[in-house]
Amino acid sequence: MKQWSRSFFILLVLALSVAAKSAKIPTDLKTAPPFDLPTRSGNISLDSLRGKVVLIDFWASWCAPCRQSFPWMSKVYDRYKSKGFEIVAINLDKNKDLADDFIFEFSPPFTVAFDPEGKTAEAYGVPAMPSSYIVNQDGTIIHSHAGFDPKKTDIVEKEIQEAFPR
Predict the structure, then answer these.
(1) Of 33, 55, 48, 44, which is closest to residue 113 (Cα–Cα)?
(2) Which stretches of the chain are assigned E, i.e. beta strand?
(3) Which domains occur in the chain, in start order?
(4) CA dist 72 to 10, 58, 67, 86, 153, Å?
(5) What interhelical angle do 153-163 and 64-80 show, nearest 10?
(6) Average pLDDT for consecutive 10-residue bins of the chain (166 residues)?
(7) N or C: which end of the chain has fewer CB within 10 A?
(8) Would you call 3 helix, strand, or coil by DSSP?
């Protein structure tokens, strides 16, 4: 019985890993769901960012790919912030101390918001960690990505560039 339980557990973990890697973010979302979340220095709402291109990124301190995505997001933010680009990284940790340790380590130059109850992630249908959504100036989700692949950062950056008016 123990052998069967261990085999089942291993298969379950493998299945979940494959599902997370191939997870598709729902495409039926057109308008980005609104949010109003606490940050370290007040609140941030999606409505307050109208007129800007916004990358909304859902993350947690335990997420290994998030350790790769934060340095990349910092570079992209620095490159495009003067054009009206914002990043809101929404943390889903229930324990804020874990999020604070992560933030201290990476010192992101962009906004970090906190949603320990996960209501915003639920509204967006977040399938994996991290998950990101590119929202145009009108509040429409134009691209979404489940997970973080360093080999695909050029694609995501091109999507950000194309979101700006010509």
Answers:
(1) 44
(2) 36-39, 42-45, 53-59, 85-91, 111-114, 131-135, 141-146
(3) 26-163 (3.40.30.10)
(4) 32, 15, 9, 14, 8
(5) 40
(6) 41 38 51 97 97 98 97 98 98 97 97 97 97 97 96 97 92
(7) C
(8) helix
